[in-house]
Structure formats: structure tokens, C-alpha cells
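re: that complex we talked abt at group meeting.

here r the seqs, copy pasted straight from the sheet so there may be weird spacing, ignore it
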Amino acid sequence: NAGVTQTPKFQVLKTGQSMTLQCAQDMNHEYMSWYRQDPGMGLRLIHYSVGAGITDQGEVPNGYNVSRSTTEDFPLRLLSAAPSQTSVYFCASSSSRKAGNQPQHFGDGTRLSIL
Amino acid sequence: AQSVTQLGSHVSVSEGALVLLRCNYSSSVPPYLFWYVQYPNQGLQLLLKYTTGATLVKGINGFEAEFKKSETSFHLTKPSAHMSDAAEYFCAVRRGNSGGSNYKLTFGKGTLLTVNP
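got the structure back, here u go
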């Protein structure tokens, strides 16, 4: 049972480039989300999904797109990278969208630098 | 809307001393509360959670937290710090009712715990 798997672990981009951060979970969780972590800011929600075909914006969605074509995968796309998007990105998943008492399981993060 | 305030971005204790990490929340509905720990270059791991029932919650690694509704607090404690407890700790709140976006977590800004020998 791998849990939540994020790839790549590290990435350096140039301003204006695009890329996709991958996230996959093997726990059949309905709910998946993307956060960014910046020093002194905690974790801020970018986008989330309550099931295949359903996504919604979080606290800081600008500059990012998501899709959820399967239960397992929830990729995050940077359309045109900006230095302000330099951050550590975490994907998380949890079960049972009808009950908020389930904890979220986190991946190990993707460390992204935009030059 | 819901929010979390963690008092003290950095807490330093001696090995064997009491650990107290403070968390206050605001929520318009009964909350579900969580503490997560993050070790360097790793993701977040769940330490403990409060949903309903007993207000004193025990978690992994000897940590516990008490939900105090009247004080809107969920402070994390450990009687005796160990060097391996050095990490960043995050308090998080989630709406405690069904429907809508009840599964969205709001995190505090984190408290970095340093344990001195």
C-alpha cells in the first residue's frame, strides 16, 4: 500500500514554462486536494476534488489548473510558471466525503523552484 | 468561515521538559480538529484528531490534546520531550457537519519545535 505518491520530488523551471505535478493514491479515496507550503504561511489549499469529474477552487487557485478523470489521480498543472509559485506542493487524500472526521493522508511533496 | 491561530512560530524546550504547543480556532459550526507533524523534507503525518466524544485525545508518540469549547482551544502537550520530537507541528480545523465543503482543512501557520539536549 503506497498511500499518496507525488512526482517529481524536485523540479526547477524557468519563468513561463508549464509543467504538471503528478499525484496518485491507491486507497480509493474520494477526496483529494493540493496545498502549497511557504515559510511562515502554513499550508494553503489550491484546488480540491470530491470525486472523479468534480473539482473546485481553494484559497489560492490562480495560476493552477486541475482535473480528476479517475479516482486515483489528481494532477496539478502550472500553465505559465512564475517565481511566486516557488514553493513546496503537497497532495493529500481522504475517505468518505460525507464525514469530515477522516484524516487526510499526505504525499512527501514536490519542491518546485521557478527561476 | 473557519480559521486557526497557532501561538508561537517557534518553541524551544529541553529534553525531558513539558511540550506545550498552542492552538486556537474559530468555526461557525462544531469543529473537527487535527494535529499534524512534519519532519524535515517529509509530508505531514497525523498525530491525533478530535471529532466527537471525549475531549482529551491521545495520539501517537505520547502526544495528547484537549478540546476546550469554552476557550476555543486545542493545545497539544507531551509530558517529556525527546530529541526525536523536533519537527514542525500544524493544527488544522474542519467543519464538523455534513454536506458542502466539510472536508476542507484549514491549517495554522505551524510551530517549529526545537528540543535541546
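couple things i noticed - Chain A touches chain B through 29 residues (CB under 8 Å). DSSP finds no helices and eleven strands in chain A.
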